[in-house]
Amino acid sequence: MSGTGDSRPPSGATALKGLRRRRRGLRITAWVAAGLVLVGAGGAGYVYFRLNGNIHSVDIDSALGNNRPVKLGNGSMDILVLGSDSRSGANRGYGHDSGTARSDTAMIVHLAKGHKRASVVSIPRDTLIDRPACRKPGGGTAPAARQAMFNSAYEVGGPACAVKTVEKLSGVRMDHYVEVDFTGFKDLVNALGGVPLTTTAAIADPKSHLTLAAGTHTLDGDQALGLVRTRHGVGDGSDLGRIQLQQAFLRALMDRISGLGLLTSPTKLFSVADTATSAVTTDTGLGSVGRLMGLAQSVRNLKTGRIHMVTLPVRYDPADRNRVQPIEAKAAMVWSALRADRTIPAAAVQGSAADKVDAGKVVGSSPTADKKP
């Protein structure tokens, strides 16, 4: 019997081609599965409108007016990220207030040209600053105030006043603003299957509902929120220590996101995107799925090791050690670096009160942070 088959093993090139086909087939299978899910939900149009409808955006441009720092035009981008602390609505589990809110967390995220490097500047909420006059969301004007706490800007004038205050403080124009509240933060952490990290010491703070033994943990949303809010469970109990914990958690969160392989799991990607778009409030310039996806795509190659996190250089207020004041000369070095799209020099933060706090050393990424749940 004559045969046309060849019993020889495939060559290296042939085997490589087969492997590539199998990998491509797996990717195609994943996206076909996603397509079936989307069709079952009403198609891609449903997904777009679902995610787009989740996003809450506010027009801050009219309230900011034209008297702002100039756009740099050097390819960099500056985003003010706020964590608001209203205890109204779904956030009541963390205390009660009149329904107003203050910016519990404030970070300037500077994406360098090409978005492969970033600087993050945390502004302590208790920093004493000169707050500009701001338009109130309900009408009228909040007068300018000297030596006001930084987080009061959001309370009196909402996100537009927070942006205006940061621009006055830094001389850097904010291209965008993003806000997350307590509930949105918890939901996002839970959608990711928790965030793995390691604590080098036990943390116990009943005020933030957090108890963690030393060791490796996968924090759920409530635990993660407790960690980024705790002041009394770690270090000297200061807001500067809390900021270091926030920065350490942010690194662990980014490691988690990068290790999940969302692009190979379209259903998981949709779940996370659905939660993330529901969790944030943005300016109108970012207030659509397309624009948020564009921003996410632009930072896809940004590695955790290329993100430099600092705290605004401050000293304790001699009259009240619960308040801090910017160290003007050192703060000027920070703002100058952002405007020039350069890395913030170490000298800018050396000698700052924040430089003497070591609460951030208690938290580090877990070896399991890059593994899927």
From TrEMBL:
Keyword Transmembrane helix in annotation: yes
Transmembrane segments: 28-49
Cell envelope-related transcriptional attenuator domain ranges (all copies): 102-257
Presence of the UniProt keyword Lyase in the record: no
Keyword entries, A-Z: Membrane, Transmembrane, Transmembrane helix
Source domain of life: Bacteria
Region Disordered: start-end pairs: 352-373
InterPro entries in the cross-refs: LytR/CpsA/Psr_CW_biosynth (IPR050922), LytR_CpsA_psr (IPR004474)
Family: Belongs to the LytR/CpsA/Psr (LCP) family.
Official protein name in the record: Transcriptional attenuator, LytR family
Organism: Actinacidiphila paucisporea
